[in-house]
Specification:
Helix content is about 25%, strand content about 30%. It is an alpha+beta fold. Among the domains are: about 120 residues, Nuclear Transport Factor 2, Chain: A; about 110 residues, Roll (Nuclear Transport Factor 2, Chain: A). The chain is flat. The strands form four sheets. Strands 2, 3, 4, 5 and 6 form a five-stranded antiparallel β-sheet that branches. The chain has a five-stranded antiparallel β-sheet with strand order 8-9-10-11-12, with helices on one face.
Length: about 375
Amino acid sequence: MKRQRRQRKADKKKQFVEAEVWDEEVEEHQESPTDQPDETGWKASTAHMSGISRLARVGAWALVASGPALGMLAFLSASGPAQGATKPVVAAAPASSVGPAGFAELFVAAYLQAGQGTERDLAPYYSGSFALAVKPGTREATQSTVLASREVQPGYWSITVAADVTAHDDKGKAKRLGVQYFRVGIQATGPASAGGTDKAASDAGYAATSLPAQVAAPASVKPGGLAYETDRGSSSADPSVETARGFLAAYLTGSTELDRYTSPGTRLQPISPAPYAALKVTGVQDDSSGSGQQKVPADGTVLHQLVQVDATDQAGSPVSLSYALTLKSRAGRWEVASVDDAPAIRASSPPSAAPHTTTTPSPDAATATPSPSPSNS
């Protein structure tokens, strides 16, 4: 029995050895010349070459897929701002004269009413030391407006105020002195919108640097020639004059509808409530070349008119007015196309200098005597 067991073990061991030898022979048989290392030291095999091919294909597709992204990146880089480009400089807003002008107008009105003993009434405007010689209440500005403003230094303004001055005598009788002109120096604090120079400030302040100075009236000019060279008078025989008369009567008195005299699509409204009860045309000028127009020209012809009227108010008082109108012909009649903003002037006729009638200051005009400054000695 023991001999048989030893024999079986020997047979199994022999089979294992033969199997190992067979595996080695198979492996040696499957090797090919391409499996041998090449001259570079890399081992080239069929599987290895297949992997390299797959990697190449993947890389090619990756480049194709990334093409649009790379193109967009290049476009954005080219269209972006240059590194050395300078940024645009925002221009500073000019200082506004509205605040200083309004302050100067109030100061002039208070100055005209003030007088001896009421100098403190000017303290909100001017804090200097002064004494007024005129009796208070002898003058007043019934109307005033700012005619000119100029910034002489940053935050410092020269303002010219026109005032319609009326004087009152000791008995209270009023006498109109006419329009007088006063120039005032005003310092402003705050932002540019208030006339100042402090960009960070939100509040504004103003102060006069002296009492007002009465100055001469500004230069007057003579207007250029108007474009209405043909005088039509007030004849009712002219169709264009009749259209102007009917339209203005409806416009000012409400006697009838405006649609009877206006072109289709024209949007004009009469004055409401009507300020006048009656109207009379006193003169008409237009820019036509003919001396008379008894017939309406072809459709679409445009005519510009300047019409003078006397309108009578509800109390029976006549008021003289002028209207610039544009008429257009249609279907054998004139129609009003618009009420113009201003009379038309000839393009080659600029305004010219004209003498201006100045107003002589009244003997009752206020005078101010500066108080003597304290001596430093």
